[in-house]
C-alpha cells in the first residue's frame, strides 16, 4: 500500500501530459514511416520515466511554497518547458 501511494505521488499531471504527447508522436512516426527502431522507443520510454520523476519532485517543491499564486505560475511554466524539452528529445531520437 505504501508503494502505491509513492507511485501516485511520482506520476503527476505534467508528467502524464508530456508522456502522452511524446509517446503518441513517436508511435505515429513508427506507424507512418514503418522504419522506426524498437530501441528508440525503449530508450525514449526510460527517459520519459526519469523526467516524470524529476517533474514530480520539482512540482511538489513548487506547490509547497508559501505564496500559492506564484507557485502555480511556476508550475505552469515548468509544464510548458518540460513539454518543449520532451518534444525536442522526441525529434532528436527520431533523427538518430
Automatic annotation (TrEMBL):
The chain crosses the membrane at residues 12-32, 38-55, 75-95. Keywords: Membrane, Transmembrane, Transmembrane helix. It comes from the Bacteria. This is Uncharacterized protein.
Amino acid at each position: 500500500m505504501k508503494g502505491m501511494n509513492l507511485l501516485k505521488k511520482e506520476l503527476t499531471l505534467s508528467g502524464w501530459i508530456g508522456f502522452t504527447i511524446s509517446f503518441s508522436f513517436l508511435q505515429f512516426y513508427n506507424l507512418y514511416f514503418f522504419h522506426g527502431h524498437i530501441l528508440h522507443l525503449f530508450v525514449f520510454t526510460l527517459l520519459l520515466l526519469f523526467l516524470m520523476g524529476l517533474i514530480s519532485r520539482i512540482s511538489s517543491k513548487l506547490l509547497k511554497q508559501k505564496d500559492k499564486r506564484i507557485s502555480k505560475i511556476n508550475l505552469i511554466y515548468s509544464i510548458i518547458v518540460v513539454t518543449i524539452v520532451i518534444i525536442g528529445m522526441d525529434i532528436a531520437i527520431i533523427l538518430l
